[in-house]
Each structure stands twice: as C-alpha cells, then as structure tokens.
Specification:
The complex is a heterodimer of chains A (118) and B (326). Chain A is mostly helical. Chain A is 76% helix and 0% strand. A 5-stranded antiparallel beta sheet of chain B has the order 1-2-3-5-4. A two-stranded antiparallel sheet of chain B has the order 6-9. The chains are: A mainly alpha (118), B alpha+beta (326).
Chain lengths: 118, 326
C-alpha cells in the first residue's frame, strides 16, 4: 500500500530539523551535542535510503567481476576479505585498490559526504 | 555504582588533606568513557581552595594505587606537563576505586583549540612542545613504574600490536577488505624491534589542555604501556586527530618537521620510517576502535547514539588508509 505523505525521507528531514533547531538549542552541554549527533545520524539514514541500493548494486557488480564469483553482497565481501588476507589477490592489487576506492567513496557519500572534500 | 556525593568527597578530601572539615562545591560530571568516570569539583577548607578532578573506575575495580596515579607522578618528575596527582581513594571513602588530581584550566576541545584567536600562539608552539614532551615520556625508566602491558619477550612491539588488533577485528567476524589490505601492507614492512620504552598510548590532539602559551597538561594515561616510542609519534599524526585541518599533519596545528626536530633536540631517538609505519597502523587502529565502539552500543553494554554513530566513521579511516598505502 502506498504510504501517505510525508515520505520516509520527508519524515527523516522533519526529525532532523526538530533535533537541530529545537532540541539541541534547548539542551545543555553533552545532551546538546548528542542531539546534533542524532540529527547527523538521521541525515545518514536519509542518504542511505536515497543512495544505498544503487551503491550496493555497483559494488556487487564490481565484486563479481573482480572475484569471478556470484552470490549476495555479504558473501562476496567475505570472499574478498579472505582472499586479500591469504595473499591470493596480491598480484591483482591495483584492481583491488580501484574497487575499494570506489566502494569507500560510495560509503562516504552516505556516511559523510564532506569528508571527500577535506 | 551510585554517583559520588559532595559529602562523600568532602570526607575523602578531609582525610587526605588532614583537615577537620572540607566543603565540596560545583560537583559535576565531565565527559565519561565506557570504563571510567571523571568528575570536577572544588574543595574548600580552612586556608585551602582546591580545584580538583575525581577519576574513578566503574564498579568492581580493585583498591590500591591505580597505575595512572603512579604514571602521573612519574611524568611530573620527568618534566612532563600533567595534572598533579593528589590522593588515591581509600575503601572507607565509599567512592569505589580511583584517585583525585588537580583540575587544570584551559581549552580541551580540539575544534576550539584550532580556531580560537587567543590560541594562535599556542598552535604555533604545540608541535614542538609535543616533541619535547614525548622525548621526556619515552626517557622515563620503566623499572620505576608499575607493571604495564608489554610485548612478550622476543616479540617486537610492532608485531605485538598487529597481533592484538588482528585478534580484536576477528572477534567481530565481519569482512573489512580495506583493513585486510592494511594488515598485509603493515605486516610486510614491520619496523625492527627495539627495547620497549614507556609509551603514552593515546597521545593525540583531544587529550591536551591548552592555554595561550601552549600545552598545559597531557591527559588520559590509561592506555600507557611498554612498546615502541615511534608509536606515539605516529598516532599523533593520524588524520582523524587533525579535526578537518588536514594540511597540518600534527593534530591539525603543526608540521612533522617541528615535531621531529624538537623530539631529537630533547634526546629522543627518531626513526622517521618507523613513525610513518605507526601512522598507518594508527589509522587502522582507529578504524578498528570505531567498530569496537559501535558494538559496545549494539551488544547492549552502553546504549548511546554517539557510539552507534561512530560505526559510520569506519569509512573515513578506510579512505585515509587507501591514501597512505595505495
């Protein structure tokens, strides 16, 4: 069933605004800080809803090519980690690094987009 | 464990200072960690007014002189700026295990230290001050200290720390391919072993109290251990402790050249390649600590939105690692 407005994203924006504009200024010291942390966490969730599925699809596609394997994303990452650790991907380090750079960039676009400019 | 009361603290101070009566004002909790608490208070009695800090362990800690208390005294004797350690809590104080030290006035918040106009002169001086302070810490004779964590005999400090964090990461059973790349890079380039020395273990921007003249006190000695002194220099340069001022590698305030020159001028034995290794290691260590802190919340030990959110900082350290090793 289609949900009524506000959308999930709009609800999150409303929560973030409340935390930043009302809760944080009304609290002192540590709780004001935690309200800002909470607002930031809500913004992360909003970005993940928007960007996460496409990022996961791109990551899976890159891993299937890199590893020559199929399967869900978790299993592909477990295989990548295992094969880096046991040295069997040492000869393909450049390809591994390229993949990791793109994966980390997509993670940062969700978790902290400003970090990419620092 | 219940909160300390002004009355309890007043009796403890009276006992420790040899006074009949003490009044405690302004008791307030400072930022607390998961394993211990820090409280500020003032103790007023005949002829005294002391600004103090109570540091105590959460429930279950043993009595007796905490290692950190002894370390603070040893550091002070070595000319390291630290709060004066005043007294150890006794069982009859009813406050649990811990100690009381002086409270140092100044700024402790890194982003403020980096942007406050009044602290411009401090920023210019701090990298060199860090070098001098670290040389003095590393020169402290470990034989005069309580037993501290140290590498197994015959195991180089770098190998011991890599093993420790390898095992810590494995405990969570999650794949972290970028960290695997970092472990391989570090394992292939371990610095040679050297005689273990006292290492502060958490010497970074965020653990200093700063005034206009520079560093007034080095805090948070609970991770002190015996190891490779270059570990402290590397940790200080980790990007996370630049708080957005990435162009200044030392804490967002200074240059490596100033840190290194002062370290050597104060008698420190510098190995720049080892420092670079320990900076990469420190980046990996901070990334793993982010996972540990997120799981402290997720496993229900300490529920906290702050701890939960730190889990999403892992990718910052992955970014930094790829910049360093790729």
């Amino acid at each position: 069933m289609t949900q009524d407005r506000p959308t999930a994203r709009e609800l999150l924006d409303a929560v973030a605004e409340f935390l930043t504009e009302e809760a944080s200024p009304a609290l002192d010291g540590r709780r004001a800080f935690l309200a800002r942390v909470a607002s930031n966490a809500v913004a992360i969730v909003a970005r993940e809803l928007a960007l996460g599925p496409a990022a996961d699809d791109a990551e899976s596609e890159r891993l299937r090519t890199l590893l020559g394997s199929k399967g869900p994303l978790d299993a592909l990452n477990a295989e990548l980690a295992r094969r880096i650790r046991d040295g069997s991907l040492d000869a393909r380090r450049e390809d591994v690094v390229t993949h990791l750079r793109e994966t980390v960039r997509d993670k940062l676009r969700i978790a902290n987009p400003r970090y990419l400019q620092s | 464990m219940s909160e300390p009361t002004p009355e309890q603290l007043a009796r403890a101070c009276a006992r420790a200072f040899g006074l009949d009566e003490v009044r405690v004002d302004g008791l307030r909790r400072l930022a607390g960690g998961a394993s211990r608490e820090t409280w500020a208070f003032d103790a007023i009695g005949t002829g005294i007014e002391e600004h103090l800090v109570l540091r105590r362990d959460r429930a279950g800690a043993a009595f007796g002189e905490p290692p950190e208390f002894t370390l603070l005294q040893a550091a002070a004797r070595a000319g390291v700026p630290v709060p004066a350690a005043r007294f150890v809590l006794a069982p009859q104080d009813g406050l649990g295990g811990g100690f009381v030290m002086d409270r140092i006035e100044g700024e402790a918040i890194p982003r403020r230290i980096l942007r406050d106009d009044n602290l411009a002169r401090a920023r210019d001086a701090m990298a060199a001050q860090c070098g001098t302070i670290l040389a003095r810490i590393h020169a402290i004779d470990a034989a005069t200290l309580p037993p501290l964590q140290a590498p197994e005999p015959g195991v180089a400090p770098a190998r011991a720390e890599l093993t420790r964090f390898r095992e810590l990461l494995d405990r969570y059973g999650e794949p972290h391919p970028t960290f695997e790349l970092a472990f391989r890079w570090l394992g292939a380039r371990e610095p040679p072993g050297r005689e273990p020395a006292l290492v502060h273990g958490d010497f970074r921007h965020g653990n200093f109290i700063v005034g206009p003249e520079g560093i007034r006190a080095v805090l948070d000695w609970e991770l002190a251990h015996l190891g490779d002194p270059m570990e402290d220099l590397g940790w200080l340069c980790v990007k996370a402790w630049r708080y957005g001022q990435s162009a200044s590698p030392v804490g967002g305030f200074g240059k490596r050249e100033d840190l290194f020159a002062a370290y050597e001028a104060a008698g420190g034995a510098l190995d720049p390649e080892a420092v670079a290794w320990w900076e990469v290691f420190g980046t990996l260590r901070w990334g793993i600590i982010c996972i540990v802190q997120a799981f402290t919340h997720l496993d229900g030990h300490v529920r906290s939105v702050e701890l939960a959110a730190i889990g999403r900082r892992v990718c910052e350290t992955e970014h930094d690692l790829l910049e360093l090793i790729a």
